[in-house]
Amino acid sequence: MDHDEFRKYAHKVVDWMADYLETVEKYPVKSQVKPKDIIKKLPLNAPIKGENFEKIFADFEEIILPGITHWQSPNFFAYFPANSSHPSILAEMLMTTLGAQCMSWVTSPAATELEERVMEWLRDMIGLPKNFSGVIQDTASTSTTCSLLTAREQMTNYEINSSGMNDKGILTVYCSSETHSSIEKAVKIIGLGKKNLRKITVDEKYAMDPKALEETIESDINNNMNPTAVVATIGTTGSTAIDPLKQIGEVCSKYNIWLHVDAALAGTALILPENRWMIDGIEYADTLTMNPHKWMFTNFDCSAYFIKDPEALVRTFEILPEYLKTKAEGVNNYRDWGLQLGRRFRALKLWWVIRDFGVEGLQKKIRKHIQMTKDLVGEIRESSNFELLAPVPLNTICFRYKPPGINDLEELNLINENLLENLNSTGKVYMTHTKLNGVYTIRFVIGQTSVEQKNVNNAWLLIKEIAKSL
Ligand SMILES: *Cc1c(COP(=O)(O)O)cnc(C)c1O
């Protein structure tokens, strides 16, 4: 492809992109293909000769698109969102065009300095204290791994990094039974052993019980173990439960334990001052992660990681072979702030999104999502055929269909599994499920960039209609 062809096809692609976003509701939200449908249509071998744009694009539309689940549809109420937005897409296109690899200051000074400033903006926007520094990671899973690694190294005076795990004793980590699976994954891969992850019981709101946390820590200390880190979740993935940060922080401070806050989704809600109660106690935290790539209209991937003591982070990760040495002083080299060496220029899209929306624009959208959620909660509460299964502090409703007269747990679980299956196979909406205390729970998440009241209304009508027909 030469420059002229690139210009021509790029215009075509951009037109397609604009059409797509405008008409995304015409596609089934959840891809309706069966396993292997796509791979069967793909040639076994790579083409020997180059193919032209028209042919590749036609295959994109005919083969690939049917196998796409449309996360940018306003009828997407599944998982947590992975939002995009017009300004984010524009910035991503520019990032791709520059193709800069932003591992250190010298490899693109603007990328480093923009990241530093934008993360200060975001820190202030979500009400974190000024003594936090930020860096962009690919995902919250990575942020959490970085946090627990830093905790591990601090705990052992950086000796595991230098001489391995020998005779360092057992390092224990604490989270609630509702915590995201990425915590267990991190504990496994950083060599602490998943049996040394303590899953603390939760209360009736699915939030960590700080008393149980303290008892478990005491018992571990009595058994000669080394409590190393606690992970508190602000907005669990199952039901957006909010762990009591202040009480957990007090326990951490008493026993001198590292505290990481996982606010992957809910961090965005902190842009609204009325939600800052969720991080009451943040002064006890060492690190916090939140994902602009979930609810903050910045396309995947972009996870914000904040740390109070970046020197501890850099000391954990820094490594300096001759070929990476540079002369620039007094600047950040973000390759030392995480796992990867090579880094994308993600700050550009975050900067663009924040500038395009403005803080007020972001607040308005988030507030609207939360209000639409509250209204729907009201309707569910009034309905005699449905019941709420968890508190709804933000934008995620956990509910089930429970027609009067049916009380058997297994029967209700089956009915709701059926309901969800039937809903999703219409292609008109997409929702997912979890289990809370063994109860099959439908999750209805209102946070898509372009979701409007009418989308929520239609989804609720559809739920009632299909439930009735079961
Ligand atoms: C989504 C989620 C994660 C994982 O996020 P990734 O960025 O996909 O790694 C972690 N914790 C919570 C609470 C989440 O909701």
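^ pyridoxal-5'-phosphate complex. The two ends are 54 Å apart (CA to CA). The mean pLDDT is 96.
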